[in-house]
Amino acid sequence: MKKIFLILLLFLSINFANGDVPSLTGYYYQFHLYYNNGVLVNDRDFKYSYDVIPGLYIQSGVQTAYPYVIEIISISGVKLTEVEFDPGVQLTGKTVGKLTVTAPYFANAKDVNIYDSQNKILISIPVSETSFCNDDKICDSDVGENYNNCPNDCTSSSLLAVTPSPSATAVPETDKTSSLLSAILYILGGLAIAGGYFGWRWYQKRNFNNT
Questions:
Q1: Residue 33 covered by a domain
Q2: pTM value?
Q3: Which N-terminal stretch is annotated as signal sequence (predicted)?
Q4: Contact partners, residue 128, CB within 8 Å, separation at least 6
Q5: Cα–Cα distance between 169 and 75 in angstroms, integer?
Q6: Which one of 23, 125, 127, 183 is most buried, counting C-beta atoms within 10 A?
Q7: Domain of 184?
């Protein structure tokens, strides 16, 4: 009985969790790389060369006058930003080893290029599969475009025509009440099913003992 009740609670918690839509602000890229005597490649120990991580991006410290540079290019070919990093901070004097570098996330990014201290490109990583802004001058709210994350597509004049994202839409009190009632009904229904099941087992066992 306890197991069934816990399963019901887990089911309800998953349903309520699915109602929360996270904001797309406050994300950053995390790249998994391997450095070998000036050559930079994807780390084979990872299935994907990068992840998009929720959280505040904090630039790592640079302790050299000749840092490496991460350059982020948009779908339309515009440089969105560049970030300096120092591979020596992680390698600590070694010429071979794993590197984990980060950069701010952009919803319209296409490629991330990494250059060495001599401005020579070492690796280019495509990131368009995690981007949803296509810079087509059309504000497509269905895929999450809005003025904050896609200013090229969603101008201030188009705000009135854009449907607010789920995260910015207030939940009416009636919806909250309905969700609570649904949760209660789920629990009661689950308890009724569990009670019927154990009652049937008891009835079967009693008949077996009588025979």
A1: yes
A2: 0.59
A3: 1-19
A4: 75, 109, 110, 111
A5: 29
A6: 127
A7: 2-20+172-210
